[in-house]
Amino acid sequence: MTMFLFLLLLMKLCDDGAALPTPVSLVEPVPMNVRALDVSGDALSLTWDYPPVEELRGFRIFIEHEDLKDVKSISTSESPPLNISHLEPYSLYRIWVKGLYEVEGSGSGSGEDGTQEVKEDLRETEKSDSIQVHTDVKAPGIPLLSNASCYGTNQIWISWSRPEKFTKTIDTYLIYYREFVYKDDRVTSFQNSLDFFKQLEVEAGSGDEESFIIEGLEGKTTYAIRVQASTESIVFENISFRGDFSQQMLVYLPEEDCEEPPVSPFGDEEGELSAGMIAGTIFSAIFLLLSVVGFVLWRQYFKAAYYYLDGDPPRVVAPVGIPDWEGEPGPDGEKGPVMVDDFPSHVTKLHADSDIGFSKEYDEIQKYSCTIVNATHEHSSHPDNKCKNRYLNIVAYDHSRVQLAPISGYKKTSDYINANYIDGFQKFHSYIGTQGPLDETFDAYWRMIWEQNVYVIVMITNLMERGRRKCDLYWPKEVNSSEVYGHIEVHLAKEEVMANYTIRVMKIKHLKDTGEKVNTLRKKKWASSDREILQYHYTSWPDHGVPAHPLPVLSFIRRSSRSNPPDGGPIIVHCSAGVGRTGTYIVIDAMLQQITTKYELNIFGFLRHIRGQRNHLVQTEEQYVFIHDALLEATRSCITEIPKDKIVNFIDILMKKDIISKINLLQRQFKLITSFEPNDFHFMSSRKSYNVSKCRDSNLIPVESFRVALSPKPGVEGSDFINATWLHGNSKLREFVITQHPTAETKEEFWSMLWDHNAQTVVLLSPIDSDEFPVFWPTRDEEFDQECFKVRFIEEAIHEGHSTYDLVISSRHDDYELEVRIIHCPDWPSLTRGFAVLKLVQDWHLEYQDGPLVVVDKCGGTDAGTFCALTTLCKQLETDNAIDVYQVGKLYHNARPGLWKTEEDIMHMYKVMADLISSNIENPLHGDESSSYITTTTQAAPAMAIPTSNGNINGSAIPERRHSASDCQSSSCSLSKSGGGSSTITNNNKDTAVNRRHSLPGGTPLLESEDSSSVNCEGNHLHDHHHNILSSSSSSPSSKKDDEDGMIDILQHFDDDDDEKTHLTK
Fold first, then answer.
1. Which helix (H) or strand (E) holds 894?
2. Contact 854, 848 (CB under 8 A)
3. Which end of the chain is more exposed for a tag (fewer CB within 10 A), N or C?
């Protein structure tokens, strides 16, 4: 290709009349021959040719991918090739280049750092020919190695799940295996020890699940196995990208077959049978025939129902004494128990160098389980019982299995259930670890509960996780309904749904006489025919990994464990397989008891001990790490849930200074509450350049995992962002949204948030100022239009201390609408009756439970956070008869760091709740129906009365936008006040009551206090007004002294400083 450049000389006269030639380019310097080099999965190098024209000052590179376009500008000093990064793997990009050349009055200059800058007023050339570039694939994610089991002589069967993240496809899997050799010195990294592994390459299938049989292995050997996924490059030939390795699994291969071969009753001789053997066979046949006839006659006359001959459920006698594990040594032979004072440094040491200490300890436990335990499981492997196991490789050891009482007239295998006794702290058989019941094992499961005198069930799984059945529904579905399982009738009496777990009260009884013929001479009455069972169902354990923070787990474990009465049987603990999360619960509970009693803990020794009672307890290293982190939190924070009758005196304890450290408990609590220091990746969205201006205060922005996301607009960067954070409440994980007062720039995002998340109640705590804090809703006779919906003003009602604004959001595409009420309380918390605000909001919001409660203050800070916290604490006081300010404060800080400024913000919540209790007034959030509490006792069986649930099975309701019931589509439709503080939507056809209250029930308005100070983002000074909310009352000096003695021990404990693997299912 030949390029021609034509120049025309123009004459310019100088002041002295001389003429100067001025060259003018007649051909634009259009870039040519654009090409991509070094293409990878997320980057490429771009180069092009361009004419050597003096006026050329730079280039603009246009990168287009689907509906997104990016533009990069460079000067000629940054001549190609240009490196382009942050691309999506396995994606098609269209790229072209334009030149930038200088015209009269333009040019380039130097920036502040001395680099050359391209002025934006430079003229662009025509674009070059565009090219299409397909980025390469990237390495796939980690496959989930779910099973590794002995399959036959010299064979191991393994199965795994396809990685969740990959590009294009998974082409092959690489299986690494070798003889496992444990070294006492530092463990060599897996990557550096690949030379010791044998490798198999397996072509990937099209499904999510894969399996393979490794053959040619040696018996009496423990093998270590890992799996790696691989994807072939689409750019380079014979190149594949390999992902990270799966977690290592250990499996012991016996010398012979996995199951012992049957032994011939006739010995080793295959020749003639002796006369004695023949006679014995005939005699045996006759005896068998007579036995069958006798059995038939016995069944006909006695028809044995499910009764025990001794009249009472059988009791298993536990061994005498206490389990011997407390003195178990550590992995290197050092002392096993760790003193509480030394535990923080112990955990820090294990976390060092990428958790190498945890890996070493956990590998030692795995080795012990594979080589030392050597327990049999013949009953689990019996053909009649295999269908009773949820997973093939999760078995019940014979020596510790729970053996059910035999049923007359049934096979001997009717005594089997996949469950094991597990020891606790200083007590044998403290727990029963079992799998999530199957449909066909419901009868056996409830028999076990009846026979073992069980009062407490702990369930740590959801019925479905990631689309897979983890457990079957083994209790009645509806409250006040009953189901019969075998001869056990189960009645679901009550259910209480909370943010992280649900408590169910069930009454069970044995159906003694069904009207059939029974042997009345031998049957006895049951000693007790009815029993109440408490089921604690933890619902927020994530599908993968472990919970984000241990505090809710610790609260759950303490509450469920102490509910078991002294005369109760073992606590049943189950997840899906009954090993991973089940073991995690048991270890934490036992260690908490050891800490309380002996001020020391031995995690390693206890887990080794119980691994000999049920296989795979604490199934992953991640769960083992979580146990340590949870117990570290427990030793630092101690008991933070304060009973109702201790709260008033606990405030004095908070202010007592420690003799050694010279700081008080409140200061220690505040330090722990605000100890989480987020990194930049926690604020990934908030810190992006196009979102920074949307935040009033850069110190009050959402952590990414708690950020309220909007529906993104195609091609608009940052369209899914609003400075808003999800906060948990007492009933839901996403009960509140806390956000800043909308600006003119973020007003549209605010209404989009209400629409997207079905939020119908907004509490506005900031004042209305025309400049800094403007009105963000349409006023009378106005509409606010957005792309998908419009906001229409309905009605305003002004009262002393608060105002309400009713609006309707209507869809532009169908007849869906959302009714929204804004409750404006600009003087809260300086109101004399501040709790009345909580009741006002709660009474209104109860009618709209599907969506979250949105709380707005100036910057989404302390005022809004305190409002949410006090609402949660009042509900907690109602259901638990106790409050946990520490837990609420810490979890709120972790979601929105900067929420609490000083210790006084925490003390304010303690004082307000103490004032509420000491004033003896009714809890402002007390429900309409009488609610009693789940009580815990150490003298009798747990109490049964629990508030009924709101129907939300997992503590996090899914919003469902309501279909228009009022046909509020025309201007003739309005929302008008009716008598009694309610409102009615009226139109030409019908009146629909919606019970909208514009003031407190009973017509009582909110009163302002004389002291009304303004609130700012930096320090809301809520503590200055706590005495204006409720008048304080002093407690009895004698009771105060008793409580102080009982709780001062807390000061001494403060320190300064699974998803289960998915196995092969039936």
1. helix 885-895
2. no
3. N
Give the Cβ contact number of residue 444 at 10 Å: 23
Rounded CA-CA distance 173/167 in Å is 15
Indicate which residues carry an active-site annotation. 575
Cβ neighbours of 657 (radius 10 Å):
13
Q: Tokens for 609? A: 């001990």
Domains parsed from the chain with CATH numbers: 7-134 (2.60.40.10), 144-253 (2.60.40.10), 338-513+528-548+558-582+595-628 (3.90.190.10), 665-710+725-943+972-1027 (3.90.190.10)
Give the model's pLDDT for residue 320: 64
With b for 16 or more beta-carbon neighbours within 10 A and e for fewer, the 132-144 pattern comes to: ebebbbbbbbbbb
DSSP E strand boundaries for 522-561: 530-538
pTM for the whole thing? 0.64
What three-state secondary structure class fits 200? Answer: strand
Nearest-10 Cα torsion for 193, 196, 201, 207:
-60
Q: Which amino acid, one-letter code, is at 211?
A: S
Give start and end residues of each alpha helix (H) in 150-274. none
Biggest distance spanned by C-alpha atoms of the chain: 144
At CB < 8 A and 24+ separation, what contacts does 518-524 make? 518/302, 518/303, 518/304, 518/305, 518/307, 519/302, 519/304, 522/309, 523/307, 523/309, 523/311, 524/309, 524/310, 524/311, 524/312
Distance of CA 1018 to CAs 51, 708, 860, 1032, Å?
58, 23, 11, 28
Q: Which residues of the chain have pLDDT under 70?
A: 1-27, 104-121, 181-195, 257-285, 287, 290-320, 333, 512-529, 830-836, 846-849, 920-1066
Q: Identify the helix (H) or strand (E) that includes residue 625.
A: helix 621-637
Both tokens of 825, joined, read 């309380």
pLDDT for 283: 64
The predicted structure's pLDDT at residue 125? 86
Query: Could you give the angle at the alpha carbon of 981 between the alpha carbons of 978 and 987, nearest 5°?
Result: 30
Question: How far apart are alpha carbons 734 and 854 in whole angstroms?
Answer: 11
Residue 228 burial (10 A CB sphere; 0-12, 13-18, 19+): buried
pLDDT of 393-421, one tens digit each?
999 999 999 999 988 778 889 999 999 99
Q: Which long-range contacts (CB under 8 A, 24 or more apart) does 743-749 make?
A: 743/694, 743/696, 743/774, 744/774, 745/693, 745/694, 746/694, 746/722, 747/776, 747/784, 748/786, 749/694, 749/710, 749/721, 749/722
Q: For residues 165 and 169, give the distance between their C-alpha atoms in angstroms, rounded to a whole number.
A: 10
Residue 620, classified by CB atoms within 10 Å of its CB into exposed (0-12), middle (13-18) or buried (19+), is buried
Nearest to 328 by CA among 597, 583, 603, 611: 603
CA 7, 11, 14, 18 torsion: positive or negative? positive
Residue 658: how many other CB atoms lie within 10 Å: 15
List CB contacts of 257: < 8 A, sequence separation 6 or more: 152, 153
- What's the first-to-final CA gap in the chain, in angstroms? 69
The whole-angstrom separation of Cα 756 and Cα 711 is: 7
Structure tokens at 1002: 């009973």
Query: What is the C-alpha to C-alpha distance for residues 306 and 518, in angstroms, rounded to an integer?
Result: 10
Amino acid at 695: C
Of 747, 734, 800, 802, residue with least CA distance to 773: 747
Helix (H, G, I), strand (E, B) or coil at 101: strand
Across the strands, what pairs with 35? 47
Kindly provide the residue ranges of all beta strands, DSSP E only, lying in 265-383, ordered along the sequence.
338-339
Q: Which residues contact 909 (CB under 8 A, 6 or more apart)?
A: 866, 869, 870, 873, 885, 888, 889
User: What are the tokens at 742?
Assistant: 């909308």
Strand partners, 492: 506
